[in-house]
């Protein structure tokens, strides 16, 4: 029965992603917002709602391993797994603005998060305290505000838009709402059933959080990014991933740490290093202005290698 529910949940994810991206492209066109920013702010935040729910539940229940592991694992999956697979399907355009601002900011925030985790302010081993959380929340607000202000000053390009641009703004917003409903519902059922199966196999919470839950809660990003790429809106796919990563690290963990300080010893330095290294790899591969299919395959192979490492160390 669990496997049937998994299949239905995946179908809901695909359907939700299709109408979400379709509506988002229309909104971007009508409001003169670029594909990247609509992907980073609207789709990126929306598809990260499952991560927020899981991390908040983990924090409320005193399970910091789930709260932090979910975010670290999701961010690794977003860059290496999702963006790698997306680029393998269709090369992803990386604009000059992405290379000069968006990706460096994402790298900087990842390094800031690692410094905060390893005692930069509160002196406690591997923890995110309330002061750390406020720093992360402030970083999120600054990035989002500046992205929107910066984007509104530019003349949007006509590239990347499809026939889905046609249609009224209210109808497009309705598509976005229904898209999110199907994405979140499908993700919720998928994660629930996956965790039940994993627990029945005797897998511990730390491993589940950084693999099954992290990848499961990132399924909306996967569905939305692949769909955006298929519609030739690769900037929207990139924005979805970068925005989601920033949202995960800053707002989700920032809010979670206000509920209770997050302390963890199960997430290793290697996990944090892979998360930061994935962003550095993105910067290198995108330095030419495009992540090629070969680059996407390399990223996905790195993701597979990391998961093989996790499985072997968990045995």
Task: Write up this protein.
The protein is mainly alpha-helical and 315 residues long. The protein has twelve helices and four strands, in the order ααααβαβαααααβαβα. It has helices spanning 2-30, 35-47, 49-60, 64-89, 96-117, 130-152, 169-200, 205-217, 219-230, 234-259, 269-285, 293-314, and strands spanning 92-93, 127-128, 262-263, 290-291. A two-stranded antiparallel ribbon has the order 1-4. Strands 2-3 form a two-stranded antiparallel ribbon. α9 runs antiparallel to α10. The model is unreliable at 155-165 (pLDDT under 50).
Number of strands: 4
Give the ordered list of helices and strands: HHHHEHEHHHHHEHEH
**What distance separates the N and C termini?**
27 Å
* Largest sheet descriptor: 2 strands, antiparallel
Radius of gyration: 18 Å
Q: Overall pLDDT, averaged?
A: 81
Task: Provide the β-strand percentage band.
Answer: under 5%
Overall shape: it is globular
Q: How much helical structure, as a percent, in the residues?
A: over 70%
Structural class: mainly alpha
* Side-by-side strand order of the widest sheet: 1-4
Number of helices: 12
Low-pLDDT parts are: 155-165
């Amino acid at each position: 029965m669990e496997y049937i529910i998994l299949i239905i949940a995946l179908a809901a994810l695909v359907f939700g992603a299709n109408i979400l991206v379709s509506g988002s492209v229309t909104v971007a066109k009508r409001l003169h917002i670029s594909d990247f920013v609509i992907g980073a702010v609207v789709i990126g935040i929306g598809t990260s709602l499952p991560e927020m729910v899981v991390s908040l539940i983990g924090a409320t229940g005193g399970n910091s391993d789930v709260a932090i592991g979910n975010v670290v694992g999701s961010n690794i999956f977003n860059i290496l797994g999702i963006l790698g697979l997306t680029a393998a399907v269709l090369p992803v355009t990386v604009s000059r603005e992405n290379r000069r601002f968006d990706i460096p900011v994402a790298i900087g925030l990842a390094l800031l998060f690692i410094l905060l985790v390893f005692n930069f302010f509160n002196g406690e081993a591997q923890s995110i305290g309330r002061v750390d959380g406020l720093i992360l929340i402030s970083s999120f607000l600054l990035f989002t505000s500046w992205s929107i202000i910066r984007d509104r000053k530019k003349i949007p390009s006509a590239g990347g838009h499809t026939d889905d641009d046609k249609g009224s703004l209210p109808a497009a917003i309705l598509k976005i709402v229904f898209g999110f409903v199907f994405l979140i519902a499908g993700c919720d059922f998928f994660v629930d059933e996956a965790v039940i199966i994993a627990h029945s196999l005797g897998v511990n919470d730390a491993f589940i959080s950084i693999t099954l839950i992290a990848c499961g809660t990132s399924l909306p990003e996967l569905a939305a990014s692949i769909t955006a790429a298929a519609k030739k809106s690769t900037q929207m796919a990139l924005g979805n991933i970068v925005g989601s990563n920033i949202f995960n690290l800053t707002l989700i963990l920032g809010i979670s740490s206000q509920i209770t300080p997050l302390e963890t010893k199960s997430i290793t330095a290697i996990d944090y290093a892979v998360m930061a290294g994935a962003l550095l790899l993105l910067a290198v591969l995108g330095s030419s202005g495009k992540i090629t299919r070969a680059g996407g395959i390399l990223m996905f192979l790195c993701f597979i290698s990391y998961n093989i490492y996790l499985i072997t160390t968990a045995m």
